[in-house]
Design a protein that fits this description.
two-stranded antiparallel sheet, 324 residues, elongated, 4% helix
Length: 324
């Protein structure tokens, strides 16, 4: 007996070993499905606690557990993807816990292990790939868009080496004009790790990120938030600790930067709370200048010029005290 399984416009699965069980007891309905696909590299096991009668895929509603092993899981992702970044290949072992509504996942927790993860861009060439990949992701669907929480992601990129990151939160929404609005949050981000992996990212990065990477950053972002629409970022804020910029041979290097930053493409403010800041100017001084620095620095874009201002910056070391 050959059975064909088709859901909506997704690829047809053919199997000779499908097992299906439906148990109804005291108004409760339990559905179990297991099979190995003959026309795809895929093993599928699912358990569903149905909340009501369902005579079609679009009527399924209830709690779901699903275990899938195989290749090319991306072929079963929604065709209306909310981002320009699109999964190009997902393979491995996938576990999903979620809530079904109208045949779709209203919320889900997804675990990938022993996997391959590859991402492409709708408008740019290239692929970003992780081998031996694992991740833990929580996602929920809302009328205005999606909320994602990436707890952990691990794997190896051929160019940049081993990656370990998380947690990262994101909110995505789309308006009727197909302009995707987004927000991203992150915590405890190593700048050294970012500087190692982002150059291997084949797609266009926001200009501020490119500028920071050119300065060989070190240190840690304790908290990060960014918001934008499509490729354009609109606002960002960062709390940072013990950040160092510049490397040997540069005209200027700075180390020990701590504080926070809030900015838009037009203006921003930087608050410095550095207990031991070092400024290296090798063309002027043989040794770096050290000081405690506290204060605010404001900037505003005015045409092709950048206007800087400060209400009060205090500098203190063993030799001098100053304000600017």
């Amino acid at each position: 007996l050959v059975t064909g399984v088709q859901t909506c416009a997704l690829p047809i699965l053919e199997t000779k070993d499908a097992q299906l069980a439906l148990v109804k007891q005291q108004g409760q309905r339990q559905l179990a499905v297991s099979f190995s696909a003959d026309n795809h590299t895929l093993q599928f096991h699912a358990r569903i606690h149905l909340q009501k009668k369902a005579y079609g895929y679009e009527e399924l509603a209830g709690a779901l557990y699903m275990h899938v092993e195989g290749e090319r899981f991306e072929r079963w992702l929604p065709t209306q993807w909310p981002l320009d970044l699109v999964p190009a290949r997902i393979s491995g072992k996938l576990d999903v816990w979620g809530e079904l509504t109208d045949g779709g996942l209203a919320e889900a927790t997804v675990s990938l292990s022993q996997g391959e993860l590859s991402i492409m861009h709708r408008q740019e060439a290239g692929y970003w790939t992780l081998e031996d990949a694992s991740l833990l992701l929580q996602a929920s669907k809302a009328p205005a868009g999606y909320a994602l929480q990436l707890e952990t992601i691990n794997g190896t990129n051929e160019t940049a080496g081993r990656l370990s990151a998380g947690p990262v939160w994101a909110e995505l929404s789309a308006d009727p004009l197909d302009k995707s609005a987004w927000q991203v949050w992150g915590e405890n981000i190593s700048l050294r790790a970012l500087a190692n992996h982002l150059p291997a990212w084949p797609f266009t990065l926001p200009e501020p990120v490119t500028r920071v990477l050119e300065m060989a950053p070190k240190g840690e972002f304790l908290a990060v938030h960014a918001a934008g629409e499509g490729k354009q970022w609109q606002a960002a804020s960062v709390q940072f600790q013990e950040v160092a910029l510049g490397q040997e041979g540069d005209k200027a290097q700075v180390a020990g930067l701590s504080g926070w930053l809030r900015t838009t493409p037009e203006a921003g403010v930087l608050r410095l709370l550095s207990t031991e800041l070092e400024l290296g100017l090798p063309t002027l001084f043989e040794e770096p200048l050290s000081a405690q620095v506290q204060g605010d620095l404001h900037w505003q874009q005015q045409g092709n010029a950048l206007r800087l201002s400060s209400n009060k910056i205090q500098l203190r070391n063993d030799d001098a005290i100053g304000e600017a």
